[in-house]
Amino acid sequence: MAQLVERNLAKVDVAGSNPVSRSSIKIDQGENIMKIMDFLSRKAILPDIKSNKKEDVIKELVDALINAGEIEKAHRAKLAEALMERESLGSTAIGQGIAIPHAKSECIANLVGAFGLSKKGVDFDSLDGEPVYIFFLLVAPQDSAGPHLKALARISRLFKDKYFRDSLRACADDETIIKVLTQEDDRF
Fold this sequence. Notes:
Helix content is 40%, strand content 22%. It has seven helices and eight strands. The chain has helices at 2-9, 36-39, 54-67, 76-89, 145-158, 162-169, 174-186, and strands at 11-12, 20-21, 40-46, 93-95, 98-99, 102-105, 112-122, 132-141. Strands 3, 4, 5, 6, 7 and 8 form a six-stranded mixed beta sheet that branches. A two-stranded antiparallel sheet has the order 1-2. A hairpin with a 2-residue loop joins β4 and β5. The longest helix is centred in the N-terminal third of the chain and has 14 residues, at 54-67. It is globular, with a radius of gyration of 15 Å.
């Protein structure tokens, strides 16, 4: 089971394409490294997700983006539908308590992310069968394959680190989450 989780942490499954190996995306070999805080909305961080079902978690994270002013409220249903459609292709819960729900949509102008923690854990149809505690929702414009893939690769790479995952899970508020993410961004 551990090998399955590791293999899936090393891949990012993107709707409409084959799994992409992180090694095929050059984000740290002489190029500018995409940082989490470049696309994570600081106002869309939920330190205690209340929902306990997959679709409700996604809606809660979409609402965080709406409340942060990143997307218009009129696009809520369309964006949630795009994210659930992506989930129908295969769960974005990659194991070890992590899910990276993601989608592309014409109602999004810029790559943006929301982050959430669940204290109880959520059944998200994870590859390892374990509950998910860490959620990173990522939405991108329809025509932004490059940035979308780089962001997914960056997120999945960071979450391979157990210490980093444990540090995030221990966070009690959005300020601490931002601090942990910023420190990790600054390491590279």
